[in-house]
């Protein structure tokens, strides 16, 4: 029996159509699911922009969700093996693994904020030196574009941001629009202040060098004030560090060891475990203090 080619193509289309519809439904369902999660975080797009991440919110959510699912599966396997070896109910692993996956999701979700904060600190660290270089170039009679080109390198993250302005202007964009676009995706208050002052001076036809100099002076005074506040706050922190990390642990160890030596018996066998616990506790306290001191320090140099 001969089958016409049109009938063959029709049969092939009929066989493929349900699969294509199912695939489209599956992709559409996943798309709607990721969109629903994105709606729960309305600031995510702004956070990705400030972190200089090119991913769209839905793409970012999909990535961290899949990482969280993978972490859940790996945690479930690991905990199930460990609990089975320790003769603990495996049901506990089924409860803990999703909790770890949820923690991983929110940990990864917070990454853009961490990256934006790191970018802000890097920009603030070099900003004043870069701005003074820019001011010297402008006062020497160099055009603003050429002055920006001269500082678009050697100043780390600040130069990267200025290079974006230079690149947009080179492609035909106006200086004001290029500055505005870069400022909108920058988390440094001081960088935004300097760039907006330059943009306002250009719009008003004023002296860019004079406006830039006054802004640099204002920012320098603010940074000096913050550094002095940090120095004043550091003194009580050091006192608490000495008290909780050195004095109390030392006296506590001596006191407990003395009691154990008098009690003897079973208490004496706890001696090594107690010392190990105290060592870990002291290490944790010192880590917390050092991390707090480092995080409290202003991110710029004077």
Q: What is the fold's blueprint, element by element?
A:
Layout: H1 5-39, H2 44-50, H3 57-85, H4 91-109, H5 111-139, H6 144-150, H7 156-170, H8 175-184, H9 189-204, H10 208-263, H11 266-269, H12 271-296
Helix pairs in contact: 1-3, 3-4, 5-6, 5-7, 5-9, 5-10, 7-8, 8-9, 9-10, 10-12
Description:
- The protein folds into three domains: 38-117, no CATH class; 118-219; 236-294, no CATH class.
- The chain contains twelve helices and no strands.
- It has helices at residues 5-39, 44-50, 57-85, 91-109, 111-139, 144-150, 156-170, 175-184, 189-204, 208-263, 266-269, 271-296.
- Helix 5 (111-139) packs across helix 7 and helix 5 runs antiparallel to helix 10 (208-263).
- The chain is flat, with a radius of gyration of 30 Å.
Descriptors:
302 residues, mainly alpha, disordered N terminus
Characterize the biggest β-sheet: none
What Rg, in angstroms, do the CA atoms define? Answer: 30 Å
Which stretches are low in confidence, meaning pLDDT under 50 for 5 or more residues running?
Answer: 1-26
**Proportion of strand residues:** under 5%
- Tell how many strands the DSSP assignment holds: 0
Task: Characterize this entry briefly.
This protein is 84% helix and 0% strand. By secondary structure, the chain is mostly helical. It folds into three domains: 38-117, no CATH class; 118-219; 236-294, no CATH class.
């Amino acid at each position: 029996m001969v089958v016409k080619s049109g009938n063959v193509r029709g049969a092939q289309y009929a066989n493929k159509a349900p699969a294509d519809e199912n695939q489209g439904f599956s992709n559409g369902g996943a798309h709607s699911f990721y969109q629903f999660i994105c709606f729960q975080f309305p600031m995510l797009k702004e956070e990705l922009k400030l972190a200089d991440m090119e991913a769209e919110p839905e793409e970012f959510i999909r990535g961290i969700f899949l990482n969280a699912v993978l972490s859940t599966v790996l945690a479930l396997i690991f905990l199930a093996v460990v609990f089975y070896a320790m003769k603990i109910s495996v049901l506990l692993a089924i409860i803990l693994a999703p909790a770890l996956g949820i923690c991983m999701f929110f940990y990864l979700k917070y990454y853009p904020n961490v990256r934006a904060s790191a970018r802000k600190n890097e920009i603030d660290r070099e900003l004043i030196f870069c701005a003074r270089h820019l001011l010297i170039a402008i006062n020497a009679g160099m055009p603003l574009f050429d002055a920006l080109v001269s500082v678009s390198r050697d100043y780390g993250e600040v130069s990267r941001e200025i290079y974006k302005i230079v690149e947009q202007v080179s492609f035909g964009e106006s200086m004001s629009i290029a500055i505005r676009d870069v400022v909108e995706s920058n988390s440094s208050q001081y960088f935004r202040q300097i760039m907006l002052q330059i943009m306002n001076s250009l719009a008003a036809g004023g002296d860019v060098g004079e406006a830039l100099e006054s802004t640099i002076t204002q920012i320098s005074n603010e940074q000096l004030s913050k550094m002095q506040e940090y120095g004043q706050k550091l003194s009580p922190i050091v006192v608490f560090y000495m008290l909780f990390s050195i004095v109390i642990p030392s006296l506590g160890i001596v006191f407990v060891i003395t009691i154990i030596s008098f009690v003897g018996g079973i208490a004496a066998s706890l001696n090594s475990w107690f010392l190990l616990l105290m060592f870990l506790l002291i290490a944790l306290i010192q880590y917390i203090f050092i991390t707090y001191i480092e995080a409290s320090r202003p991110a710029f140099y004077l």
